[in-house]
């Protein structure tokens, strides 16, 4: 906890300095005057984000090469199933088991709950998590916090995932990648890994729904079950959920542009005050 104070104190100080004139003169319509600009650092991040969208879309559909995404896909599938499980518990249901398989996807067995909420919660839950990770991917300190949560989630997937050596090795390698990135330029590389996972999780619903309902016409998806129970077509519900996912991702990007205007140098300075890897290494 003591390490949190300097960083957040500095950020709060800069926020007060920036907001001070606007608070003193509200008639100037500060939102209108300032607008939402993109600096060089943010522009580079947006460029990387766009490249991720293209790269993941290609890897998702190319045979054999798609296994590069295996550990990240396992995590995103886990987010999807967590969405089902959490909403089931919140609506009076009970989760009996969760299973993850990179070949067949995930399955959450539950009893009770409001299926009108639990069925779309898988895609929308992973999209919300993806939007938050995308938001964190614009800042090093935020990425450090996100990476700790991601590391725990990666390890939790081993509990539900099929216990074969390849799954275990790939997930542990992914955790190792997160840890290694902490020691590269005060975790500057870490935020690009967090951004990658965020983009993949945000667009998982788009790619998966397209894969299931349009390309392969699978009839056992969440969208098809929802359509049978509540009307409409599976394609229609799939498109609606995909649009919501895209909107959440865009909101995450806009929020990040507004919240993290710091350049590379400032982000690295802030990162040195939040669990500094060099000092931590020396203490160990």
From TrEMBL:
InterPro entries: Peptidase_M41-like, Peptidase_M50B-like
Pfam families: Peptidase_M50B
GO terms classed as biological process: proteolysis
Signal peptide (residue range): none
GO MF annotation list: ATP binding; ATP-dependent peptidase activity; metalloendopeptidase activity
Assigned keywords, A-Z: Membrane, Transmembrane, Transmembrane helix
Transmembrane domains' residue ranges: 48-69, 132-159, 165-184, 189-207, 239-260
Domain of life (superkingdom): Eukaryota
PANTHER family linked: OS02G0221600 PROTEIN (PTHR33979), PEPTIDASE M50B-LIKE-DOMAIN-CONTAINING PROTEIN (PTHR33979:SF2)
Name of protein: Peptidase M50B-like-domain-containing protein
Organism the protein comes from: Didymella exigua CBS 183.55
